[in-house]
């Protein structure tokens, strides 16, 4: 009987430990198809790239690193690696997919739905394209 009580307690704490973890961060992050098809309305001209670079260095580089290698100064404390934005796995995604991810965020990455205007999110994406494999 005593063993059963101990077993129940152990099982209970194991379940609690499991539910506290964040299993969703281990799954692949995929944007809904309708969002993936969204076209970037902002041309990647000089002024968009300059604005995008400003946004990126202020808001994103702390985690994703200046050149998008996921090695920003804040990355070490996250307990999860920020995506390497310069990698093919990110670069091959559509602008629509990246826009959706930046808009909704995913713990520990903040969402930018209200923190950045849509234009600034597209500017940041235009800038992200310049980080490919640098
Ligand atoms: C607090 C740290 C942090 C900040 C700030 C941050 N990110 Fe992230 N970002 C992450 C982490 C961690 C992930 C990985 C999330 C996952 O896959 O579970 C991620 C994922 C992403 C992805 C998806 C990559 C993929 O694998 O599909 C994109 C795109 C992205 N970030 C862009 C940005 C942009 C643009 C900014 C600035 C506007 C930004 N992030 C700011 C931490 C951050």
Describe the protein.
It is built from six helices and no strands. The chain is mainly alpha-helical. Helix 3 (46-64) crosses helix 6 and helix 5 crosses helix 6. The protein has helices at 2-20, 33-36, 46-64, 88-91, 95-104, 118-129. Bound molecules: heme C. Heme C binds next to helix 3 and helix 5.
Question: Can I get a quick summary?
Answer:
The protein starts with a helix and ends in a 5-residue tail after the last helix.
Bound ligands, named by name, code or SMILES: heme C
- Estimated structural class: mainly alpha
Which series of helices and strands comes N to C? HHHHHH
- Helix run count: 6
The CATH architecture designation is Orthogonal Bundle
Number of domains: 1
CATH class term: Mainly Alpha
CATH 4th-level superfamily: Cytochrome c-like domain
**In terms of per-residue confidence, which ranges show pLDDT below 50 for 5 or more consecutive residues?**
15-24
Largest sheet: none
Please state the overall shape, judged from the principal axes of the Cα atoms: globular
Percentage of residues assigned to helices: 40-55%
Q: How many distinct beta strands?
A: 0
Rg over CA atoms, rounded to whole Å, is 19 Å
CATH topology: Cytochrome Bc1 Complex, Chain D, domain 2
Distance between the termini: 63 Å
Topology:
Blueprint: H1 2-20, H2 33-36, H3 46-64, H4 88-91, H5 95-104, H6 118-129
Helix pairs in contact: 3-6, 5-6
Bound molecules: heme C.
